[in-house]
Known about the structure:
Number of helices: 7
Low-confidence stretches: none
Order of helices and strands: EEEHEEHEHHHEHEEEH
Distance between the termini: 13 Å
Mean pLDDT: 91
Shape: globular
Largest sheet: 6 strands, mixed
Strand content: 25-35%
Structural class: alpha/beta
Radius of gyration: 18 Å
Bound molecules: adenosine-5'-diphosphate
Strand order of the largest sheet: 6-7-8-3-9-10
Amino acid sequence: MSSKTLLKITNLHKQFDLATETVKALIDVNFEIKEGAFAIIYGPSGSGKSTLLNTIVGLEPPTSGTVDMLGQDLYQLTPDDRARFRQLTLGMVNQTNYWVSSLNVIENVSFPLYLAGYDRQQATSLAQLRLEQVGLGNISAHNPTQLSGGQQQRVSMARALIASPRVIVADEPTGNLDSRNGELIMGLLERSVKEQGKTVILVTHNLDYLSFSTQQLEIKDGLLTDTTEQNAARRRKIGVKHG
Ligand code: ADP
């Protein structure tokens, strides 16, 4: 694995000031993720996982602290430059997919490339390649809303990979899937790390998936601990071979 730092989070705090109270969603969070890692952020509901992920991808300015990705302090960029940085660097997979329902699968997958200025033929052939990589080369003309949940998540993976991002950020990508389809998506994410050198940052509350990760970050009540070593020891003890 490359030892180059991809993401460095320093003294990160995020609070939400509501009419009646202040919610401290992230409290002095510090960690690093190296390029080529499969990092899993886990913890119970309401612990701050989504807030942290949104901050990492540039969508949620922190109250204080810094988010440095590939040497770029994200919140020193203007919102437009930050959006562009995100478009060039990150592929996103979420729990729920939002498709352009008037477009078929291949058009939905290639959509980010149109926005990036690719011509139609280039975009279509790259989208077809990405669909083949997730084992769905034969459903290009379908409407995505008519696919099963598992197929939709694989199309979502193809869309996330379309512009060859260095990082894939996945927020509960298996949240709506049965365990077989969940494992399939986790396997595709793992392949993107092992075969394509991507870095994956994944949020989940499902501890079964920790065995796919190379780095585990546990969050509880806004406080984060890097539990990588603890979990490696626990996996060895219970004889889990993965990862
Ligand atoms: P998780 O993803 O682990 O379920 P969240 O990051 O969604 O946790 O939430 C962490 C805390 O921050 C919770 O107490 C939640 O209610 C609060 N929170 C998250 N987003 C907002 C917001 N936009 N406004 C106010 N409170 C928020």
